[in-house]
Design brief:
about 550 residues, alpha/beta, eleven-stranded mixed β-sheet
Length: about 550
Amino acid sequence: MSASWSLAVDMGGTFIDAVALRSDGHVASLKHPRAGRRLAEPVVEALDQLFAQAGIGADDVGRVVHGSTVITNLLLELNEPPVALVLTRGMRDVPVLARQDRKELYEPVIMPAVPEAKLFPEPLRFEIGGRIDAEGREVEPLDLSAVDAIADAVSDAGVRALAVGLLFSHRNPTHERALRAALHARLPSLHISLSSEVDPQPREFERWLTTALDAYAKPLAANYLHALADALKMRGLPPLRLMRSAGGTAPWHDLAEQPIGLAMSGPCAALQGVAAGLAASGPAIVLDIGGTSADISILRDGRPTFTDALECGGLPIRQRCADIASIGIGGGSVVSVLPGGALRLGPRSQGAWPGPAAFGLGGDLPTLSDALCVLDRLPPRLAGGIMLDRGAAEAALGGVAGALGLSVLRTAEAVVGAAAAGMAEAVKTHAFQRNLDPADAVLVAIGGGGAQHAAEITELVGMRRVLVMPNASVMSALGMLCGPEEGDVRLTASNSPWASLPPEGAGPYSLFAPMTTVFVPAGWSWRVMPDQTLALEAKA
């Protein structure tokens, strides 16, 4: 039988999105809840369920592509153990001093540029003698006599990953490679990242921080990617490829060795999917809201824009990638009240486990999804069979309501309003910094929560039109099959979630389509376009 199907699976913070694209353009898709903190297993479960749903056999599959927000969420939440750094003698504090640019001009207290305690605390930053000059010449031999002491300290601290950053290693990587070999001889299981391989460019702070973040992500990424590749191989599927932050795909083992290349894997895939399927002309701002983060990007002339640096959770990362800004607000973002009485959402997320209180999986902290549940803006049953518990959501929001002196209902409204305000500011900032007036663009809402918040965000930004594509909730997975190396991909609307909706209507209204929930505020209208895109428009 010919291999007529291409598969893609995206792992977000709350759901696994799986898509099968047939050679004639037909799309089959589903959303599968992530169970607990497992990584590889729910991906395989989602694919097995999609196979059964669409009648696909292993022999029918020509390729399998995977991407995720796992590394994005990891860098937003910083909930993994810290890593060790080995730097040139006298350079111990360079990754902490950063660039000393003060972004918040009027804050009375300047926050540290880099959260060193979570990433690489002072006891885990080591120095070593040896020097390469700016021309790449050795002017001082590498002092390998210090390796034993470093290895002992790393082993005693239980560190699983280490980053090596030596001066001018981008001109001559000999010292870094020798240091890696010596450390591996002592600690064979230690994950090691070299700055000469991760980011071989000048400017030590950027190169060393990017390398440290690569090391920080490596233990988690390596474990889950190896397990996933083995599981797919046992099912007789083609070798796994991964979506890269820079666009296109690569063999999984390449990115297991350098996982920082996955930092914007899922969001970049979503952007490719929008570019492949959007018929609208003119600039578009793409808003992708998931369970942990909201990702913002721009299409110009139907094409994604790219950059040589990105920022994730305030951390500057020097990597070629789609130009995407990511903030820690999503459906699972935990709601708290600051001492001054202001609401704060995220960056901590309940994720898939224990999840929002409304999911009934044991979570008891208030989240954005709980506020939406209390406001009846979510259907009783979510994709993947999750039944919502409104009583649990109200109980979770009770503490916040008490701190604010409001009813639970008014508190839920305040939480949703705060989320919209935070995302609107991020949209405006991202657009204006790239010389785009948001009023001149259309907002394209994707992800599980994009269409839920898009209209309110659009009003705050000063825009007037929102587009929701037929496969909006699984766009990251679909976009993995639309990479530039694959050529043009033809998508059909035969399974459009809007097929059962009337052709037009007016808000306020929640449209509960399969896998996508759209909220239409008062003063807005909606209609289904000929290409099956759902258009929301603010009335004049």
